[in-house]
Amino acid sequence: MKKIGRLEKPDNLGSAHMFSNPMLERMSRTHISIPITMFLVLACISYYVGYTETEISIGTGLLISLGGLVFFTFVEYMMHKYFFHMDHDTPLKDKIQYSVHGVHHDYPKDKDRLAMPPFVSAAYSVILYLIFKLIMGEFAYYFLPGFLIGYAGYLSVHFIVHAYQPPKNFLKALWVNHAIHHYKNPDSSFGVSTPLWDYLLGTMPKKD
């Protein structure tokens, strides 16, 4: 039983068994609703603290939140391109890359591995809060929710793209771009929730 590493000829169906320890294996999975709910609840708490404990106006707070959301889309793109698709040219990097993202490319239909486990998501939230609070002080109470709402939106889009057929409207472009990334060219279409940064940074898939 293989613990972490590249598995033989995945068929894009089923699920990888990554850990021989059943507890670790279970902890590597999560229903998509858990991190989404977690991020939205934390966003609401942060909004409440910002509204009740600071003098920041609602209008200013909403603009800051919008900035947090846009910043998330940039972080999403950069993480996907440079961390999730890092060159796995050493055994350690190979294990890291596969465990955080490569397994998803081998088994894109595995709905339990479309998001990081809850304890990882919680750690992300705490670290982000500390970083934002250090950099921007009380404005972090509005910037963090924008970021977390962007994260929840990304998880929602990613789940829907993998779980359902593409709609017959403008949102179909998200399905098409992500399908190209998975099945045709993994070096393009790194934006899941928006193709904005792919357009700006030149990684949109080339038209045949």
What's the layout of helices and strands?
Layout: H1 22-27, H2 33-53, H3 58-84, H4 91-106, H5 118-136, H6 140-163, H7 172-183, H8 196-201
Overall description:
This protein is mostly helical and 208 residues long. The chain has one domain. It is built from 8 helices and no strands. It has helices at residues 22-27, 33-53, 58-84, 91-106, 118-136, 140-163, 172-183, 196-201. Helix 5 (118-136) runs antiparallel to helix 6. It is globular, with a radius of gyration of 18 Å. The N and C termini lie far apart (41 Å). The model is unreliable at 1-10 (pLDDT under 50).
Cα-atom radius of gyration: 18 Å
Overall morphology:
globular
Q: Strand fraction band?
A: under 5%
- The structural class is mainly alpha
Tell me, rounded to a whole number, the average pLDDT.
Answer: 84
Q: Give the termini distance in whole angstroms.
A: 41 Å
Helix-strand pattern, N to C?
A: HHHHHHHH
What labels would you give this structure?
globular; single chain; 0% strand
Question: Outline of this structure?
Answer:
The chain is globular, with a radius of gyration of 18 Å. The chain has helices at residues 22-27, 33-53, 58-84, 91-106, 118-136, 140-163, 172-183, 196-201. The protein has 8 helices and no strands.
